[in-house]
């Protein structure tokens, strides 16, 4: 066997040009596949993250019945304690309050959805604070941040005052004067059009409510944890609450992401076909080109099985080199895209797809799931590609092989 | 000429290799054509349906409207404005629109809504609302009290066909006014926002409601034969409306920046995909030709010895490549167009994969994607693939021409 | 939100004023005549009144005291006098414009039409009560559907069906009017499927401000059991001289009124 290995290895380097051509095809394909799958999964992850990071969080807790009418009377009591309990299950959690009111800025008024957040804890669950288009995020009491479309409707500018009027929980008129400190990026149709964000304390004061929350939003600390398992675990910790994952809360969004997944698989399929076509092509030719040489080998007494084995060994070494080279280039490119990203913001601004933000700056991910499948694929395809010419070659009578055209 | 003949014969001396090369060119072309075609078709459909639903491919409006979105800023004397649209053959039609915010009430409650007031006679026949009508009929004319509303809104207000609906809005003077409407149709587009928030009412009802006169509208939506002509029509229209401070001429890109961004960004990811496919295919072609040239060093050596000039060999190899390219591109284009035709007629049915309807920035996406390849895109792809093939042939051709007779002959072992 | 209050009171005033028709018909009046009488009273009058309002919902119960100035249909000013927390909150209606004043933050808000959903302080009035400019006789066909005795007193039952083009949400309204003095006792509001949606009961007929009026009014929604809004007259004066300029934004902000 070592003899064959040696022979195969030497055979490969005997015709350097051919080997380089084959290696080039293999590693280029592999590089592109690794980088592409990294980029594609990166974009998908980004979309999925935005679906949760810019609003709902990954899991939400409510009192049963809250989701039907979003009544400010269906609240979770002592949210601090419950948040602490939930966080024991290995997640970040934050209490929230949500209701509706009339907001007015100068001459203009509009109906709005008012969101009260815990400034500190919210950052562990969502990233509103990183999506400020103008101004800053909430900093001191009586600060508010607005969605970008409602800001246009109100003609609101940073620093201007915002009147909020609403019906407090005791039926009285809740009203107060706030300062607009920031305007959000476009992060989703609903938020853009109707949301204003204030601190939890300001919200409680405005609505005249005590230590309650309408919602507790949760985010995994470890992204590898299964959401459904976590949901069940939280459900056990807080049996009275209705616990739902964002996929259950927003089926349209998760459907959308599934469609995206699916279309990605179609694209992969096509890329893989293209790749295998090239590999097949290259392998076919490199074997057929050598048929005379193989004929000579058989003429001097090598058995067809040995020839087949030899070709397979050669292919093995060749693909090993190709994979090393391509894998290296691919991972490098993918890592570059992971860190620097592909910035398309010069061509386009962020958009919302099914209500979630798709940013024009794409970042790849690089992990075993994006790197391994292309490598395995290239490896397998190179063997399949070589099989047909190899079998054909070893079946030839030496004489025919010598005159094979 | 003899070179071409020779090249042709050379090609068929190694049928397998030629077929493989041609098939990879074909593959690349077909994929490119199908993808670009589906992309063009999808964007076209989206742009068209968004334009018909919203404010046309081109929107004419009071130049102060966009910044404030206040229905105070109207377009006066529409006949005069519409008169200036005449003589542009790309324009398929135009429709006056009044848009604004309102409240809808029934005896069970009220919801906020956005209305689009239309003159049904001027609307396009295939507007989304008509296609997605679930119950009842579309509006009959610009008069009357009919209203078509979305299914989610109907549910929230507990109304059905024939039910009363009171619309309340601020008129141009800022006063609160109401009008009675009757639900004549309920549509369901699948977009929560459209179905839960939008309604259409007859144009003159909106004028009464808002206290506008008969020649006043919020905007004129201009529909084009084909959305591809948007930019060229706009530049001509802008000359016809020189006073920007009165009438603003806007394209759908400005009116619906979200949609424009989607088309842009989705197109971009499509391009990236195409580029990767092209690189893979190009490297394949390069490989094939390079190998075939290397393999034939002996043959070239013989040619050179027999007095053929290196230039002729260069031309010979290039000619082979060109022939390969022509064959591949011809077959590929035919196949690609056939696939494309299939998708143009039958469409690519997304419902095979999902039952969900999705919307992009509030524009509902049709569940069946239809292909509609732009002729100029077809040309670009074909030329690109052909050029790519030729380019991949240059290096091997140079290599072949540089063969030194003696060395080439020695290579034959 | 607060507009509701404005118009609510405004509507109430109209209803409460209605019994001032002098009941001196020799023959049976038609439904139209009864409503005309009411409609006349709804216009051209001015009033200054104080009401106690009690609202009960599933979650809370509260009492307010409100002072209210009206002049014709076009002018209304309402100011909350009690509880202390909301003292000075005021609403001004001039023709079809509405403003709110919030003393706590010293700001006036003009209220856009698209925000008139939700109820003011949770009371049980609809927008129809509020934005109404026209009169019952303008908007509804009317018919006496009962003429005789109920609970020991002579009453007319008038059924109001909306005209085809009237911008009103109701399917029909049934009104019970006392025969002897045309004092309304009861109004029931139906949706288009003739399902009752809410009722308004008028009680405690007393002489106040020189007129005989029901001084207690209760609105009960059928779809929210246990909830109601109750308005009780504390005092009222009619036909006072109030200048149009009284109903100004400047005055809206002044606590003295």
Helix content of chain B: 40-55%
What is the N-to-C succession of helices and strands of chain C? HHEEEEEEHHEEEEEEEH
Overall geometry of chain C: globular
The strands making up the biggest β-sheet of chain B line up spatially as: 2-3-8-5-7-6
What's the architecture of chain C in CATH terms? Clam
Number of helices of chain C: 5
Biggest pleated-sheet summary of chain C: 13 strands, antiparallel
Q: CATH superfamily name of chain C?
A: Lipoprotein localisation LolA/LolB/LppX
Low-pLDDT residue intervals, each spanning 5 or more residues of chain C = 1-26
Class of secondary structure makeup of chain B: alpha+beta
Average of per-residue pLDDT values of chain C? 76
What is the global morphology of chain B?
elongated
Report the count of strand segments of chain B: 14
Oligomer state equals: heterotrimer
Helix content of chain C: 10-25%
CATH classification class of chain C: Mainly Beta
Note down, in words, how this protein is organized.
The complex is a heterotrimer of chains A (405), B (413) and C (257). Chain A has 15 helices and 16 strands. Chain A is α+β, with helices and mostly antiparallel strands and 405 residues long. Chain A has a 6-stranded mixed beta barrel. Chain A has a two-stranded antiparallel sheet with strand order 2-10. In chain A, a hairpin with a 5-residue loop joins strand 7 and strand 8. Chain A is elongated. The model of chain A has no long low-confidence stretch (mean pLDDT 84). Chain B has 2 domains: 200 residues, no CATH class; 201 residues, no CATH class. In chain B, a hairpin with a 5-residue loop joins strand 6 and strand 7. In chain B, helix 2 crosses helix 13. Chain B is elongated. Chain B starts with a helix and ends with a helix. With 257 residues, chain C is of the alpha+beta class. Chain C has a single domain, classed as Lipoprotein localisation LolA/LolB/LppX (outer membrane lipoprotein receptor (LolB), chain A), CATH 2.50.20.10. In chain C, strand 12 and strand 13 form a beta hairpin. The longest helix of chain C is centred in the first third of the chain and has 16 residues. Chains in contact: A-B, A-C, B-C. At the A-B interface, helix 2, helix 11 and strand 14 of A face helix 2, helix 11 and strand 12 of B.
């Amino acid at each position: 066997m070592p003899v064959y290995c040696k022979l195969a290895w030497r055979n490969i380097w005997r015709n350097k040009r051919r080997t380089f051509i084959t290696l080039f095809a293999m590693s280029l394909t592999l590089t592109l596949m690794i980088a592409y799958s990294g980029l594609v999964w990166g974009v998908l992850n980004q979309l999925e993250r935005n679906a949760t990071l810019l609003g709902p969080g990954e899991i939400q807790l409510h009192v049963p019945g809250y989701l039907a009418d979003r009544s400010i009377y269906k609240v979770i009591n002592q949210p601090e304690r419950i948040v602490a309990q939930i966080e024991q299950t290995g997640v970040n959690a934050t209490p929230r309050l949500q209701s509706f009111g009339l907001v007015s800025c100068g001459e203009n008024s509009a109906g709005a959805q008012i969101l009260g957040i815990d400034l500190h804890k919210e950052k562990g669950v969502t990233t509103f604070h990183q999506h400020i288009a103008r101004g800053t995020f909430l900093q001191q009491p009586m600060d508010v941040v607005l969605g970008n479309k409602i800001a246009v409707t109100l003609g609101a500018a940073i620093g201007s005052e915002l009147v909020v009027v609403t019906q407090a929980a005791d039926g009285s008129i809740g009203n107060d004067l706030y300062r607009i400190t920031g305007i959000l990026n476009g992060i989703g149709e609903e938020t853009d059009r109707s949301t204003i964000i204030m601190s939890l304390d300001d919200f409680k004061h405005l609505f005249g409510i005590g230590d309650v929350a309408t919602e507790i939003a949760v985010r995994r600390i470890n992204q590898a944890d299964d959401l459904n398992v976590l949901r069940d675990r939280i459900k056990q910790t807080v049996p009275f609450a209705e616990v739902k994952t964002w996929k259950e809360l927003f089926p349209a969004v998760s459907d959308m992401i599934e469609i995206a997944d699916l279309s990605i698989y179609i694209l992969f399929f096509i890329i893989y076909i293209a790749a295998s076509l090239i590999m097949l092509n290259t392998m076919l030719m490199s074997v057929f080109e050598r048929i005379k040489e193989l004929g000579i080998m058989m003429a001097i007494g090598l058995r067809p099985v040995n020839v087949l084995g030899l070709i397979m060994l050669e292919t093995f070494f060749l693909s090993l080199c190709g994979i090393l080279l391509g894998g290296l280039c691919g991972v490098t490119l993918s890592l570059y895209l992971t860190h620097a990203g592909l910035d398309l913001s010069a061509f386009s601004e962020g958009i919302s797809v099914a209500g979630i933000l798709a940013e024009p700056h794409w970042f790849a991910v690089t992990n075993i799931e994006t790197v391994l499948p292309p490598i395995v694929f290239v490896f397998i395809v190179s063997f399949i590609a070589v099989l047909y010419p190899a079998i054909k070659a070893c079946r030839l009578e030496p004489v025919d092989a010598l005159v094979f055209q | 000429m003899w070179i071409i003949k020779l090249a042709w014969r050379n090609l068929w001396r190694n049928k397998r290799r030629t077929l493989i090369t041609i098939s990879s060119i074909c593959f690349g072309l077909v994929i490119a054509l199908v993808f670009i075609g589906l992309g063009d078709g999808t964007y076209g459909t989206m742009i068209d349906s968004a334009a018909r639903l919203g404010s046309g491919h081109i929107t004419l409006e009071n130049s102060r409207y966009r910044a404030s979105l206040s229905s105070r800023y109207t377009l006066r004397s529409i006949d005069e404005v519409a008169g200036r649209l005449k003589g542009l053959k790309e324009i398929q039609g135009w429709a006056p629109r009044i848009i604004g915010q309102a409240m809808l009430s029934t005896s069970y409650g009220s919801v906020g809504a956005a209305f689009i007031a239309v003159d049904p006679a001027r609307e396009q026949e295939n507007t989304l609302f008509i296609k997605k009508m679930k119950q009842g009929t579309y509006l009959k004319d610009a008069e009357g009290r009919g209203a078509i509303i979305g299914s989610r809104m109907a549910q929230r207000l507990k109304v059905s066909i024939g039910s009363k609906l009171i619309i309340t809005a601020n008129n141009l003077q800022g006063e609160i006014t109401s009008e009675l409407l009757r639900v004549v149709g309920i549509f369901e587009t699948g977009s929560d926002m459209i179905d839960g928030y939008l309604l259409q009412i007859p144009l003159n009802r909106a004028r009464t409601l808002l206290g506008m006169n008969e020649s006043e509208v919020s905007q004129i939506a201009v529909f084009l034969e084909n959305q591809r002509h948007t930019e060229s029509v706009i530049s001509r229209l802008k000359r016809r409306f020189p006073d920007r401070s009165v009438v603003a001429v806007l394209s759908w890109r400005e009116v619906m920046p979200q949609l424009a961004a989607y088309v842009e960004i989705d197109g971009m990811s499509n391009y990236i995909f195409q580029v990767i496919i092209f690189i893979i295919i190009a490297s394949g072609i390069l490989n094939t030709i390079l190998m075939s040239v290397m393999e034939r060093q002996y043959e070239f050596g013989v040619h050179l010895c027999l007095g053929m000039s290196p230039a002729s060999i260069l031309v010979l190899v290039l000619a082979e490549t060109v022939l390969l390219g022509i064959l591949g591109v011809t077959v590929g284009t035919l196949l690609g167009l056939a696939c494309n035709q299939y998708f143009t007629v039958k469409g690519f049915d997304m419902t095979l994969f999902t039952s969900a309807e999705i919307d992009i920035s509030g524009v509902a996406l049709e569940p069946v994607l239809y292909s509609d390849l732009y002729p100029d895109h077809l040309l670009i792809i074909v030329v690109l693939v052909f050029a790519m093939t030729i380019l991949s042939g240059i290096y091997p051709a140079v290599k072949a021409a540089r063969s030194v007779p003696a060395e080439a002959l020695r290579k034959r072992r | 939100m607060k507009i509701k209050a404005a118009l609510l009171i405004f509507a109430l005033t109209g209803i409460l004023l209605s019994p001032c028709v002098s009941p001196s018909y020799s023959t049976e009046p038609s439904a139209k005549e009864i409503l005309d009488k009411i409609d006349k009273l709804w216009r051209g009058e001015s009033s200054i009144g104080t009401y106690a309002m009690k609202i009960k919902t599933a979650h809370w119960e509260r009492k307010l005291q409100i002072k209210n100035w009206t002049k014709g249909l076009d002018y209304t000013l309402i100011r909350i006098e009690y509880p202390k927390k909301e003292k000075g909150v005021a609403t001004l209606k001039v023709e079809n414009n509405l403003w709110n004043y919030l003393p706590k933050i010293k700001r006036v808000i003009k209220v856009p039409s698209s925000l008139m959903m939700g109820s003011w302080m949770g009371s049980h009035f609809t927008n129809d009560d509020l934005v109404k400019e026209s009169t019952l006789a303008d908007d509804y066909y009317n018919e006496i559907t009962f003429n005789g005795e109920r609970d020991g007193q002579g009453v007319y039952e008038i059924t109001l069906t909306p005209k085809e083009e009237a911008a009103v949400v109701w399917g029909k309204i049934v009104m019970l009017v006392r025969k002897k003095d045309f004092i309304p006792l009861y109004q029931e509001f139906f949706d288009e499927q003739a399902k009752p949606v809410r009722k308004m009961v008028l009680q405690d007929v007393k002489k106040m401000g020189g007129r005989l009026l029901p001084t207690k009014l209760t609105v009960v929604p059928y779809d929210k059991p246990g909830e109601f809004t109750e308005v009780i007259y504390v005092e009222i004066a009619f036909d006072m001289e109030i200048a149009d300029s009284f109903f100004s934004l400047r005055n809206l902000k002044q606590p003295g009124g």
